[in-house]
Amino acid sequence: MKKIIIGNNLLRKLDSLFDFGQFSKIVILTDTNVAKHWLSVVKKSFKQKTPEIIIDPGENEKNIETVKMIWKKMFELELDRQSLLINLGGGVVCDMGGFAAGTFMRGIDFMNVPTTLLSQVDAGIGGKTGIDFIDIKNGIGIFKEPIGTVIDVETLKTLPKREFVSAFGEIIKHGVISGREYFDFATSKKPEEFDQNALIKIIKGSVNIKSNIVKKDPKEEGFRKVLNFGHTIGHAIESLSWKMEKLLLHGEAVAIGMIAESYLACLSRPTYNLGGYATANIIKRVIINAGLPTKIKNIKTKDILKMILTDKKNISGKVNWSLPKKIGEVEINIKVPQEQIVKAIKSIII
Fold it and tell me: Based on CB atoms within 10 Å of each CB, which residue in 279, 302, 329, 347 is the most buried?
């Protein structure tokens, strides 16, 4: 894992945090929402010229057409293989920017500067990049780590409350994976009740948990699959929500996915000695306390099942689940009968 810097008021001195002199050119990728608040701050921190590429915001922009536009701009700006792309934004910008950089001229370096709490604890680290394709979330992508990640909690001041709360879907998941100490601290208050110092502690905790897992298994060949808890059903309902009037944010979908998959662990307990209802109830309680959703409307069980089968983690059409045994322990590569999957899915549909 490359250098990760976490703190406050970092964007105003970004140029001093890394050796940027090694790059022939530096270009900033951001979206229109982030640009209004933070683009000029970052540009002023650099002594050299740093042109920008600005895209429209939102998950619906995370597609190959937007990437084509980014590649075109990179050629127009005459980037070469010694250039650097700085991804300034949320998960969409970090995922898509990493993919665009990792494939441009067979790969140039990029840096992530995540500006949302969700991207600070998830997409901004870990080396996964990608875009959505034919309604499959992150269906196309590559593994490529940024040269570094700068996390400035000052950017959270401009984050809408719903997006801020959504991040706790991933934060709670990290707690379920890591153990009671982090889990208890990160769920001890409602998200909006944590002060800046506590948020930095939570972000550092999540970053350390994910970084340590990624170090052991950078390309998700084994142990890293624990990070997928809540994501098999979560990604399915998130993708299906894109066709609805109000789409789910990623952390919201993961929260609902954890509810369903915790129940699936209960159903599978006799076979795999997984977590029981006590563990599932704890997870549900902290999700409710965080203000995250626990159910989904207007989606059919059969559609969720179909979407689950497109999941990247499947092998030969078999779904590999990551399910909790207890708080602090998640088992991977669990295979369960379809009737149990159906029952778990139905438990989250209104």
Answer: 279
Please tell me the predicted confidence (pLDDT) of residue 59: 94
CA-closest candidate to residue 183, choices 194, 199, 198, 171: 171
Select which of 170, 238, 252, 261 is catalytic: 170
109-161: pLDDT as tens digits: 999 999 999 999 999 999 999 999 998 899 999 999 999 999 999 999 999 99
Specify whether 49 is catalytic: no
Give the whole-number percent of the chain exceeding pLDDT 90.
92
To the nearest 10°, report the CA torsion of 87, 90, 96, 98: 40
- 250 an active-site residue? yes
Q: Which CATH architecture has domain 3-158?
A: 3-Layer(aba) Sandwich (3.40)
Residue 170: active-site member: yes
Catalytic residue list contains 78: no
Residue 220 a catalytic site member: yes
**Topology adopted by domain 163-346:** Dehydroquinate synthase-like, alpha domain (1.20.1090)
Delimiting residues of CATH 1.20.1090.10 domain(s) in the chain: 163-346
Residue 330, CB half-sphere, CA atoms under 13 Å: how many? Answer: 29
